Predict the 3D structure of the following.
Amino acid sequence: MRTNTITGNAVSFKSQSRAQTIAYWTVTLLLAVSIALSGIGQLMRFGGNVELITDIGYPLYITNILGTWKLLGVLAIVAPGFPRIKEWAHAGIFFLMTGAAFSHALADDYGDYGFNLILPLFYAALNIASWALRPSYRKL
């Protein structure tokens, strides 16, 4: 993939390797699908979403807020253009996921084998990988 960078009066072209492009889209789509399913689950209150929220002491209406933020973040990350919005979306997803892990830890709600901590931290790691692998034209 070719991108251009304007430095002074000259325009230089940078090429992203095919492997990096494949890695970026693999990680980003895995993140997007995971976060979107999580957001939909919270908005629809599927499965254990109600228990996950109420067991740590949060009010149930927070699922509407978190689910909406997750879906908007996914849209921002996969939509073409808007690099500044993408930066904010990555930051928001990072804060959501680390905040979820921290909330569960403080409430002593680790889940089976620490699942309630491991899963959001895994999503945070995917988010960091997606951000780090992004093409140069998506950088500010």
